[in-house]
Amino acid sequence: MIPRTELSAWADRTGIAVRWPDELVGAPDFRTDLRIDFGRCFVRTPGVVITPGDEAEVAAALRELRARKIRYVLRGSGHSSGGQALIEGGAVIDLGRLTGVVADDASSGVVRVRAGTYWLDLVEHLLPDRRPVALTTNAFSSVGGTLAVGGFGDTSHIYGLQTASVNALTLITPDGERHELGPDDELFRYALAGRGQLGAITEVTMPTLRARYTLAVRRLEWKAIGHFVRDAVMMSALRIYDFARVRVFWREGNAVEGICGRFGDGALVPEPGFELLQPAEWTDLATADLLEHLRADGNSGWGYACPAVELVLPLPAGLDAWNRINEEIHRSGILPYMRHGAALALVPRQALPLVPVPDAAYNLMIALRPMVPLAEVEALVEPVRRIAARAIDVGGRLYLMSVEPDRERVRAQFGDAWTRWAALKQTVDPDGLCNPGLLVP
Question: By the 8 A CB rule, do 401 and 84 touch?
């Protein structure tokens, strides 16, 4: 039970904002109703919502919850599909007020930003001719939230996940201690893609790319995923395109369609290496405005559930594994809700221990995000879990904003890194209060 009287007194004394269950108003937007997340597969009512306004208040809140042994989850923009930002009866630490650019060195291109900032707000700050190294397809997700899970982006075929382009970060561990961390620090390496198990990322320092938001683009089609993978490896190795967004559709086998391009105005000229590619069809398009796409808020009025499963398979073995996963997809019943296809991305080997990417030179990410009427979602959650389990069983990894399979399979995907991760967790959070469930029962 949440001690409401005592926590109310603590909030009055510290000035930290809190809300109670009877103050949580239902709304169709998951960003305002903290009982749901983007996936809308689960509803969980917290005992209290704490909204700190700065790092000091984050630290004070974590110390108070630790002293009272209250379980809690850390929530950025709530853009999870498996209920990871939800808790029943415990506390939600809403990090949405930790926003804004702290420092920006235009000469070096390095920017320091608070972790609750939307990627779109960072983009707006960097205009007109700089951008984050990699951008997720949803610019209304938070910087800290995506870095806590990995962050697939439009340039990941070249630069890897968003976690690969972090120079430094600030972490408030569950004991309330503030840590300034860099790549040589173990907490840095296990906090990135660490699912918030070691505390709250509050600030991030990262490089930027010198690039405008216009794109010279080309539309390409392939008849099968295997054909796309062959070309994608060439595109990555030779850097034929700066930008790639690709989808697979379940028609005539696994047809693949994508938009690839280079940053800049004007039409594409014959690209060095393009003659090595073998798409079934290709068409040069006019210049595209990426900024217009980023500013379109697809979350506004979102009326569907999304029991997503996002998996990453090592290549070349992953192509055979995909055939088995594809059988599970056909059995699952989600294909009628996948008319928009599934996102594909090629990702090179990543260095951090917890990234959702197998240790192969190249890996294939497949994001299954069905659009399901709310009344029908309950019947699909378990089939989606089976897809996730099959992906881990055949050597892949699961992007853990998905609907998760059982805990032992989740543990299996981390291999040897699990032991060290669990040891760090025990050091900073011995009672397992922070984001419970992944490392502790």
Answer: yes
Residue among 112, 114, 6, 101 at smallest CA distance from 53: 114
Whether the pTM exceeds 0.85: the reply is yes
Strands 178-181 and 72-75: unpaired
Share of the chain above pLDDT 90, in %: 86
**Would you put residue 408 in left (φ > 0), alpha (ψ -120 to 50) or beta?**
alpha
Same domain, 169 and 233: no
Instruction: Identify the residue whose tokens are 């030779």.
Output: 238
155 CA to centre of own chain: 15
Q: How far apart are CA 213 and CA 265, in angstroms?
A: 9
Looking at 178, 193, 210, the residue that finishes a domain is 210
- Compute the average pLDDT of residues 101-116: 97
| Both tokens assigned to 97 | 């007020």
When pLDDT is averaged across residues 294-323 and rounded to a whole number, the result is 90
The pLDDT of residue 302: 73
Residues whose CB is less than 8 angstroms from the CB of residue 388 and which lie 6 or more positions away in sequence, other chains included: 309, 311, 398, 402, 403, 404, 405, 409
Same domain, 280 and 344: no
pLDDT in tens, 237-288: 999 999 999 999 998 778 999 999 999 877 777 778 889 999 999 998 888 8
The order of strands in the sheet holding 110-114 is 101-105, 110-114, 200-206, 168-172, 178-181
Does one domain contain both 226 and 282?
Answer: yes
Is residue 337 located within the same domain as residue 350? Answer: yes
Q: Any residues with CB less than 8 A from the CB of 10 and at least 6 apart, and which?
A: 16, 64
Q: Which two tokens stand for residue 121?
A: 């707000």
Task: Print the domain residue range for 52.
Answer: 4-94
Give backbone dihedrals phi and psi of 46, rounded to 5 degrees, phi first: -75, 160
Segment 348-370 mean pLDDT: 97
Q: Contact at 8 Å (CB) between 227 and 220?
A: no
Neighbours of 203 (CB within 10 A): 22
Q: What is the CATH number of the domain that holds 398?
A: 3.30.70.2520
Please indicate, yes or no, whether residues 314 and 411 belong to a single structural domain of this protein: yes
Amino acid at residue number 59? A
- Would 127 be classed as within a structural domain? yes
